Amino acid sequence: MYFKISKKEFYGALSTVARAISANSPLPLLSGIKIEVKEDEICLTGSDADISIKKTIKKGSDFLLDIKETGAVVIEARNILELVRKIDADEIEIETIDGTLTKFSWQAAEFKLNGMNVDDYPAIDFSQPANQFKLEADVLMKIITQTCFAASDKETRPVLTGVNFKCDGIELECVATDSYRLARKVVTLDTENKFNITIPAKSLNEVGKSSNELSRIFEKDEKILIAVSDKKAQFWIEDTVIQTRLIDGTYPETNRLIPTEFKHELVVDTRDILNAIDRAQFIKSDGISIVKLSANSDEVYISTKSQEVGSSVEKIDTISYSGEPIEISFSSRYVLGAIRVLGGTVVKISFSGDMKPFIVQNTDDNSVLQLVLPVRTYN
Predict the structure, then answer these.
(1) What is the pTM for the complete model shown?
(2) Is 148 helix (H, G, I), strand (E, B) or coil?
(3) Sheet holding 300-306, edge to edge
(4) Using H for helix, E for strand and C for coil, what is the string for 186-213?
(5) Starting from the edge strand earliest in sequence, which strands make up the sheet with 232-237, in order?
C-alpha cells in the first residue's frame, strides 16, 4: 500500500477507531489498527472483540487523500497514534516497503514501524442487520446520558451491565438498572419495529464519545441509523460505524417495579436540591453518604449524620409539596446522579411511602424517569 494523506484527517480517524482497542486484549492482533487502502478510500478498524469501530476516509475536497497503491496492514495502535500525533507536517506519505514494514515520511523525516499480517486479523462482519431505525443525534445522546449511568458495574449479573432496548411498534423503551436505582427513557420512532435487546453500557458510552461526529450530524439535520439483530447492534455516524455485541440473557421485567400511585409529591428548584445534597454528602459513615429528606406542607429539610464526622441540617425552598409529612433516607450519589441527567430547572420527586421506591422526574419532560430505592436508617 502507498498513499499520501492529511495528518489532521488521518490522526482524527486513528483516534476514533482506537477507542475500541483494549490495552489488555487477549489477541495480539487486536492491539493494532487495521488499515485497508482501496482504490478510492481508506478503511481503519479497531476492535476488542466486544466492540468494533470502522472509520472510512473517502476522497474529498477539504483534505488531501492521494492513493497510489492499494494494500493492507495492521499496526500497533499505541505506536501509530504516538508517531502521527508528533508529526510536524500537514501531510504524510505512508508506504509498506517490505511485507508489513511500514514507512512514514514527511518533509525531511522518515520513520519505519513494524506491522502485522492483515490475514491474521480476526474477521469482523460489518454487514447491516435488516432490523433498522433512525434517531436524531440529540435524542441518542439523551438516551445514553440518561440511562447508562444507572447500569451495574458488577459482572455478577451480566445482563444488568447493559441498557435494555425494547420496541414493539413505534415506542422505544430504554431501561438500565443496578437493582438499587433505575433509569428509563422512552422515545417515539418514525417507523414500527420489534426487538428486545440489551446493549452493553460500555459500548453505548463509546457511541456517546463520538461527540464531534454526532454534532456534525445534528448540524446537518440528519439522523443516525441504528441496525440491530439478535447478536449485534450498529450505530452509523457519518463515515463511522460502531458495532457492539449484545448481552445474552433475559432482561428483568422492570415496569412492575415502578410505582403508579403516589402519596407525596415534592416540586423544587433543581439547583437548590442539588446544591443542598451536594453539601451534605461529604458527611459519610463507612465511606457512604446517606441523606435524609424530611418534608411537610410547611418546610423541607435535607440532613445527614455521622458518628465519625458530624451532622448537617439545611432547609430548602420548595415550589410545592402535597401529602402527609414524610421522612425518607437515600444514597446521595444515586439521587444526585438521577437529578443531574434530567436537565431542566425544576424537578419533581414522587413518593409512595418512606420505604418504597421513589420517582425523580423533570417537570418539562415526561419521557425520562429515574427511580431510586430508599435506605433504612437507625439513627
Answers:
(1) 0.91
(2) helix
(3) 310-316, 300-306, 290-295, 326-331
(4) EEEEEEEEEEEEEEEHHHHHHHHCCHHH
(5) 71-76, 32-37, 41-47, 51-58, 240-245, 232-237, 223-228, 131-136
- For the chain, 379 residues long, the average pLDDT of each consecutive 10-residue run is 95 94 85 96 95 92 90 96 95 94 94 95 94 93 96 93 97 96 96 96 90 63 90 94 96 92 96 95 85 94 89 94 95 96 94 94 94 84
Nearest to 329 by CA among 272, 291, 279: 291
Cell of 228: 440491530
CA end-to-end span of the chain, whole Å? 71
Phi, psi of 284, deg, nearest 5: -120, 150
How many other CB atoms are found less than 10 A from the CB of residue 248?
Answer: 10
Task: Give the C-alpha separation, 321 to 323, whole Å.
Answer: 7
Mind giving me the DSSP string for 10-54? HHHHHHHHHTT--TT-SSGGGGEEEEEE-SSEEEEEEE-SSEEEE
Q: How many CB atoms lie under 10 A from the CB of residue 23?
A: 8
